[in-house]
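Annotated sample (chain length 234).
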Amino acid sequence: MLQSWIKDFQSNITNNISHVGVAPPNIYLDQFNSFLSSLNNKNILLGAQDVGEAEGPRTGEVSSSMLKDFDCSFSIIGHSERRALNFETDQIIKKKLKCLLEKNITPVLCIGESFEQMQSGRTLEALEAQIDNVLKGMHILHDVVIAYEPLWAIGSGKTPNPNDVNHINEYIKDVVQSSTANDFLPKVLYGGSLNAQNASTFFNKKNIDGALVGGASLDGNIFAKIVNEFNRII
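Output written by the structure step:
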């Protein structure tokens, strides 16, 4: 499965790409690290889909130290599936963020509103609460990336208007700046039913700094096309 993905990705990716990270399941981290080493392209970063909330004896968890051993540059935290299926709270996510920062691994913090919150006009309120719960008062000296993923758009084929996402991402940047102790300005991605056909409509917006690609990333061909489109636009 992984070898097929790598072959498809490598066959479709353009030369001199940059600003791309790949977060395979943990069991594939070593294989994917070897693949990236063979490419000799420092602009393709290896990441993880999640991290444990602490070091020490926690059977089955993957700690930030372990990710560092695999040369992981970033890790996703707070993904909607982790929040829903593993009952992760903002307090747990904050612990994970701190663990990553201690190892100089970039956290990719996922936030998003439910369909009910969107319908009732409480999107910005919901996002601000999640940001404050995790980042308020923190002095951030290392990169933190925010990924806005509206829960109602993930895997549904429904996407919000790119202009609306642009406005929301601008709001997210303002909230992060006001929440953090040192006015940290993050990069903010968009995730939620993004694909090769609609990617450019999001990448063209000023406050959308990239994408957290979900289902479309499972196909190496499609993921490569999205990466190519992003690198064409930036």
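Annotation: The chain has a mean pLDDT of 93.
Annotation: The longest strand covers residues 106-111.
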